[in-house]
Amino acid sequence: MKRFRSAIIRFGLESLAATGAHQLLQPLTGGLGFIFMLHRIRPAPLGTFQPNRHLEITPEFLRSVLHYLRQQNFDIVTMDELRTRLDWHASGRRFVAFTADDGYRDNRDHALPVLKEFDAPITVYVASDFAAGSGRLWWIALEHIIAERDTVTLPIDGLETSIETRTLEDKQKAFSQVHDYLRSLPTDRDINEVVGAMARRAGIDDAAISRALCMNWSELREFAADPLVTIGAHSISHCNLAHETEEQARLEMSDSRERIAAELQRPVRHLAYPYGDRAAAGQREFTAARMLGFDTAVTTRPGVLFPEHAAHLTALPRLSLNGNFQNIRALSVLTSGTATALWNGFRRIDAA
Which domains can be identified in the chain, with CATH numbers? Predict the structure, then answer.
C-alpha cells in the first residue's frame, strides 16, 4: 500500500510539473511560506531494502534544495521568526523554516555543514529518551530485524504469526504489514514490547539503536551552541500522544521540555508531535501544547502557511522533504503549495 501511495504521489507531482499548472496556481495556493520536515540526512546507504527511505535525504539533495530556495528568493527563517511573521501577517517574500525530528547524529555531521554554506537555520526536535540513550527507534529496529531474517514471528490479534521475509519483495511486504499492525496497537509501550521480543529472537539489541544513531546530551550541548541551531521538544519517549491519557500526554510534552532545558541550559519554546498525523495529534494535543506555553507546535499534516495559522500556532502543517522524491521538479511543485492544496481540498486550515 505504501509503495502504491508513493507511486501515486510521484505521478501527481510529475504531472503538475509537466503541465506547469502549479505555477499558475501558486498565487492562490502558495501562502506566506512553509515549514520543511526532515529526519535523517546522510549519504545514500547501500542495499535494496530501505523501507525507511522516505525519512532520509542525502546532503547533496539538501544542498540542491537550499540553492533552489535562494534562487527563488525565499527567506530562510527560524521558528521564532516564523511565529513573528505569522503574528504580524507579514507580506512580502515567502519564507521557509527547516525542522528535523528525533535528534539524529547525522543532523550534526551531514546537515549542519550544508546549512552553514547557505546561512540557513534549523530547529531540531529532540525526544529526551533518545538523547539519554534509553529510547526505542522501533521502526529502524523493525527494518534491521526483517533485513536479517528469512522469517519473522510476532503475535497478531493474539495469534503467533510467522511472515516469510526471504526475498526483497517478501521483506517489503512484511515491513508494511507489520508496521501498520504496530501503529494500530493501543500504546507505544505495546509496540516496543512486540518489537523488543522480535529483536531478541533476531539477536539484535534494539535498545542500542538510539545510542548509535542519536546525539547524546553532551553532543547536543555542543550542537545547540551553533547560532544556526534551535532545539525543540519531541516528547520524552516518542509516543503517540493521542493514545495516552490526557495527563500522560501533557507530561510527555512538559517533562521533555524541562529535561532538555535543564541539560542544555537554554529555553525550549517549540514542539513537534511524535508521528504528528491525525492519529497521533488532534485538538486535545493542540490545546495542551498551547496551555503548556509552547510558542509553536508542528504536525506532519501536509500544508503551507497562511495568515489564518496565526490563530493555530500549535497545529502547524509541514512539507516533508521525502527521500522518495529527491528532485527539483518535485520540489518546485511542493513549494508552490499546489499539491497540498489538492490533498487538503483547498482548505487553508487543518487544525481539527
Answer: 2-133+215-235+261-343 (3.20.20.370), 138-206 (no CATH)
